[in-house]
Design a protein that fits this description.
This protein has about 325 residues and is α+β, with helices and mostly antiparallel strands. The chain has 8 helices and 8 strands; from the N terminus they run H-E-E-E-H-H-H-H-E-H-E-E-H-H-E-E. The longest helix is centred in the middle third of the chain and has 76 residues.
């Protein structure tokens, strides 16, 4: 990067050019560890008496061994001795520390803002989930139970009939009971799949993928390699939620015809992959969006993985589908 003057006072154009040249030759190098002083005579006259003797000093702005920039001074009034060079070094170190702290503050502030948005999303998601459960209980399970009650009341008031007629009348209440049971099971699975606790991660992911993707007309294949073993409840729940979010995104946004899930159990880690042949998207538009709500799903998945010491990566391009990869450490897990 070409050095440029950010601030100058009382310097002639020639002297400023010489100062920038001095910075370019020495101060901007990351190997520069100390200051350097220069004596430069700008050629602004033909007679030596018309020329001004400029003294230069340049110092790198270093923080933790990394050069963040350079600072230089020039004077024609007093000599730049070693004491003044040491003073410039000390000032440069203080400037470097201040710059580094500003950068750290910006990073912390950005992380704080993102966490605030994530917390807002979590609270909003909880309210939306409560609303969805209440609606489904009212519209589906509640109505099924009401219809079941009416059928049983009608059956109780009916005159004594043959066994065959009674069985025929019980067919509808039994069907309503089965419908209500299936709806309650679906709600329970969305909240906390029992398969995850009883049979483990692989079966829970397979059941959820088959239920959501095939219902949406999307073909799905699941492949498991390596020695399958159980993880801690925290890690299984985190990875399942990430896979659940990935599968849900395929159903909602991908317009895919097929999806592939691969769970690879390695010695020290479990690698979970989801690939689809959908429309894909441009990652930069999600990550760099001006809308703070966009990309929060991705942030939530990464946050889940970071909490269990894992990692998440997503590769996607318009027209070529999406690949999601989640890695969870297995140190001390399983048998």
């Amino acid at each position: 990067m070409t050095p440029a003057a950010r601030a100058s006072r009382g310097l002639s154009a020639d002297a400023l050019d010489e100062l920038i040249e001095a910075i370019s030759n020495t101060g901007s190098s990351e190997q520069t560890a100390t200051s350097a002083s220069y004596s430069v005579v700008p050629s602004d006259g033909t007679d030596g008496r018309d020329q001004t003797l400029w003294q230069f000093a340049v110092t790198p702005l270093k923080s933790k061994g990394v050069v963040l920039g350079t600072a230089g001074v020039a004077t024609a009034k007093r000599p730049v001795d070693q004491q003044r060079i040491q003073l410039l070094d000390a000032i440069g170190n203080q400037i470097a520390v201040a710059v580094e702290r500003c950068k750290l503050y910006e990073e912390v502030q950005l992380a704080r803002d993102l966490r605030g948005e994530l917390l807002h999303k979590v609270i909003t998601a909880q309210e939306e989930e409560r609303r969805r459960i209440a609606r489904e209980l009212h519209d589906e399970t509640g109505q099924a139970l009401t219809a079941l009650r009416l059928c049983l009341e009608r059956l109780a008031l009916a005159p004594t009939s043959s066994i065959k007629e009674i069985k025929a009348r019980l067919a509808q209440p039994l069907s309503l009971c089965q419908q209500a049971e299936e709806e309650v099971d679906k709600l329970i699975f969305d909240l906390r799949p029992a398969l995850l606790d009883d049979l483990g991660l692989v079966e829970a992911i397979e059941f959820y993928a088959q239920t959501r993707l095939k219902t949406a007309g999307i073909g799905v294949s699941l492949r498991v390699t390596g020695m399958e073993r159980r993880l801690s409840g925290e890690r299984e729940a985190a990875l399942f939620r990430v896979m659940q979010e990935g599968i849900t995104n395929i159903v909602k946004h991908a317009h895919a015809k097929s999806a592939m899930i691969h769970l690879q159990f390695k010695t020290n880690q479990l690698v979970a992959r989801i690939e689809d042949d959908g429309c894909g998207f441009e990652m930069s538009q999600i990550v760099g969006s001006q809308n703070p709500r966009r990309g929060l799903g991705l942030l939530g998945m990464r946050e889940r993985m970071s909490l269990v010491g894992g990692s998440l990566s997503i590769i996607s391009k318009p027209g070529v589908g999406t690949r999601l990869k989640a890695v969870v450490p297995l140190a001390g897990e399983g048998v």
